[in-house]
Amino acid sequence: MENIKKLIDEINSRKPKNYKQMKIDDISKELHSVMKYEQTILEKINTFENDHQNVDLIKYAKISCRNIIERETILIQNAYLEKIDSEYLNSK
Question: Cα(36)–Cα(47) distance, rounded to whole angstroms?
């Protein structure tokens, strides 16, 4: 149970970066990084699930992960689209 709590703390402590200050290539790398992070976290959660650990904490970890990743992905998408728009509009 302590491992699940540590994982939840890790998930909840993840802070998004300032994607608007990044270049398009860096934003793309960050998206890949977020996706890899999500895979890693979900693998850990599945391990806890397979060990039949605290079901409520596992559900909470899944919800937290989903919310954090969705928020970060939306921020990345918005920054990416803004960069594309500004670079495309500036090149005309």
Answer: 17
